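Section 4.2 – Deliverable D4.2 (structural model, holo form)

The reporting period included a commitment to supply a predicted holo structure for the target in complex with protoporphyrin IX containing FE. Inputs used:
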Amino acid sequence: MPSTFNTVDSEVALTHTTIHPVWVRIFHWINAAAVIAMCLSGWQVYEASPIFLAIRFPASIALGGWLGGALLWHFAVMWILVANFVAYLTLGVVTARLRKKFFPLGLRAIASDLVAALRGKLSHGDVSQYNAIQKLAYLVVIADIGIVVLSGLAIWKSVQLPLLRTLMGGYDNARIVHFFAISVLVGFFAIHVVMVALVPRSLLAMIRGR
Ligand code: HEM
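Output (structure tokens):
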């Protein structure tokens, strides 16, 4: 039956087509490891001078052991995070992958995919295409990492970068921006990992490419 052949052919094509090129996979996993190390060491740094007394991070979930140790981690891993992030964005723009994967993205598509998601009817059959909610979430987290880096720079080089410091609303406000941008990142991470666990085929694609 021709239709059977078509189905088999398209399944074979799907399993042999690369969904995420190797550079995306390398950047993604380096980014995930770097973000986790930055958060854990950042929590230890925060403990030396908490912004909100009610929000504290026990040593069991922090990295570095003490302020000096945590700063060493934070200042070492930040170079990896930033270099990796800039390379991902540059290759994404140069190869037009960012545009093709995340756009077009309209309010109508977001609203209808949100309704479908809340009803548990959002399809995850084709992991090579992101739905509107995924596109939005990935774009938000990419922009958020940009804000984390810029607010971090404003805190680290506050005197040398007065314009950035002013844009962040001053040194103390830059710490608050940094804290909330990281909170968005942690919220994304929790939902992202649950979604990946619900669609394990997407994890395979992010590991082996297809
Ligand atoms: C904070 C750390 C993380 C960030 C910021 C992050 C960010 C992203 C982004 C931006 C994408 C889209 C990439 C693209 O197509 O160019 C993505 C995809 C993906 N991520 Fe992560 N990720 C993180 C951690 C993780 C972890 C820990 C896992 C595994 C449990 C994971 C599994 C995946 C998978 C499987 C995809 C493809 C998902 C799909 O088909 O929808 N990520 N991630």
